[in-house]
Amino acid sequence: MKAIPSLLLLGLSVTALQAHTLSSSDKEGLRQHILDEYLQKSAAQAAVIPKAPSPSQPRRVQKPVQVASTGVFDLAALISISSFTAPSGNGALMAASFAPFRPKVRFFWDGTTFYEESDNMPDNMPNRMTGISSWQQQIPLPASYFANTTNPENNAGSLGFGQPNYWRLPLVPTVAASPTLIFTPGSTSNNFQRGAIALASNGIAIFNPANNTGRVSYEIGELDYYGGHCGMADDYHYHIIPMHLSARFGGPLTDDKPVAWALDGYPIYGYVEPDGTARQALDSNGGHDHGSWGYHYHAIGNNTVDATHPYGTPQSPYTMTSFRGTVVNFGGQVDGQPEITPMRASGTGGYTAQPVAGASFGANAYKNPVALTTDGSGNLMEDTSPSAVASPDHYRLRVTINGTDYDECWRLNRTANPRSITITWRLPGATTTTTYTSVNNRITAYPMAGASQAQIPDTSQTVNSTSTFGEDADYTQNAQSFTDNGNGTITDNVTGLMWQKTDNGESTWETATTNASSLTLGGYSDWRLPISNSSLTRLITSLMDWCWMIHNLS
Q1: Average pLDDT, rounded, for the chain
Q2: Rounded to an integer, what distance in angstroms lies between the CA atom of residue 325 and that of residue 335?
Q3: Rg of the chain, C-alpha, whole Å
């Protein structure tokens, strides 16, 4: 594997960030401090995010990971002439509201649209499912809201047909000729009963307050304390605005940051105005326009908390009741948004999509990561031994049914081809273990912020070019390690990436992209180029005169 030219990687510097208070002996801490300060100072309210040239070549939000000797390469100057430009309309506010949830969410934009990617499994939700008293036997599985996953919509008339399966928000909302109804309290005739009406700032979809039967999910005990549950596709989503994201209830978003975004592009704030004052009267859509904030919606409810409402008390109608902005209603959903394909059908593996009488979930019923093992019959169970090691790909959901606990356990099999999930299902009188094959890339090769992003291989450089601390030679971390798979591929044991062993020679970016999409190698056909994560990376890549293919990870 050839390295990116060392002059570029080893010469990064930011002229405005030369004074730091951390001890030089804390090398990794110093590096992280430099990066954090750079991100904080590079854009108002949000981290620096490269502008996407087009949806087909997205630029993802990730912190840079290499900062070394100063004085050679002026990164700030590069940024000033590159595509690190502020978005139009609500883009900066969108970035500010999604940024606290990175790396579990990634986002980027082009000239008209803000894009968001996630696997639908954010951190800091330890009590997922707690409080549900009407459970239809679904469990939270990862989704694949990624650019390299194709939307599974099978109707060619849909805007989402054949498109990347990520979220889209207009940077500048367009006021509709007339509002489009979403939900009317007490009515069973509502729009948008399929798919989301909004996107929470942690990357989780928000559905209509009424479920697919027309009943209000919150009012019939289907939701946990966060306001969410799992649907027929085992996809976790909210049916009310998730106030646990607000700083008033321990979340990271202050009052001036939206906790969600309606799919028409307007922000959704919490129970108070962005300046913390009492919420003013709302119009018939559930929003208003006043002050300097522009038109926006609000979560409906109040800040009162109790044992069963730790994040405030929701009130009908819970969300906005109509879209003020323009959306396309196609097949009962906001058209063009991502979709999820179910992996398991009702009636398989002991699972039946119907309520279980007497079922409830206590505190910490949901556990991930967890250590799992198998019993003598091959069924998954929690490993409570002192030597047990929890895995982020292992899950346990404990449901209490008429006073008895039953553990539903599942394991994501990411290294298999095709990838799969093994579920042990326990209900009174039966235990069933079934393996389901991933469809439409539902189970990705690695989790969000997995090994391929969390670990950076050492450059193995040992020569000091200057006396300035920070060169690659000054530290060793994650020493390079490779495995020749004997089938034309090489696995990087540090990042988990699989590479084509022999490059394709000199090629344009466009030709290389076409070659990757048609390559079958090592038993895989979902190869891709190492997609650039920033304008800087794209610049570096453009200077290279060779091209490898990389096996698709997300």
Answers
A1: 81
A2: 14
A3: 24
Nearest CA among 318, 326, 340 for reference residue 138: 340
pLDDT at 39: 44
DSSP state letter for 358:
T
Burial class (CB in 10 A: 0-12, 13-18, 19+), 322: buried
**How far is the C-alpha of 147 from the C-alpha of 48, rounded, in Å?**
20
Q: Which amino acid is at 169?
A: L
pLDDT of residue 83: 40
Report d(CA 318, CA 222) in Å as an integer. Answer: 15
What does the alpha-carbon distance between residue 396 and residue 180 come to, in Å, rounded to a whole number? 40
Tokens of 311: 């994040």
Assign 531 to helix, strand or coil. Answer: coil
Using the CB atoms, write b or e for 107-119: b if 16+ within 10 Å.
bbbbeebbbbbbb
115 close to 69: Cβ distance less than 8 angstroms: no
Token pair 């890549």 in the structure block, residue: 541
Task: Judge contact between 417 and 443, C-beta under 8 A.
Answer: no
Q: Give yes or no for a contact between 182 and 282, defined as CB atoms under 8 angstroms apart.
A: no
pLDDT of residue 319: 96
Amino acid at 321: T
Q: Are 23 and 32 in contact (CB under 8 A)?
A: no
| Close Cβ partners of 265 (under 8 Å, ≥ 6 residues apart) | 89, 90, 169, 170, 171, 172, 173, 174, 325
User: Length of the chain, please?
Assistant: 554
Q: What is the pLDDT of residue 299?
A: 98
Element (H, E) at 181: strand 175-181
Please give the Cα distance from 382 to 375 (Å, whole number): 10
Strands (E), 402-514: 404-413, 420-427, 430-437, 482-484, 489-492, 498-500
- Three-state SS for 451? helix
CA torsion sign for 94, 96, 100, 106 is: positive
Which residues in the chain land under pLDDT 50? 1-25, 27-28, 38-84, 451-453, 532-546, 552-554
Give exposure, 277-289, as e/b (b: 16+ Cβ within 10 Å): eebeeeeebbbbe
The verdict on pTM exceeding 0.85 is: no
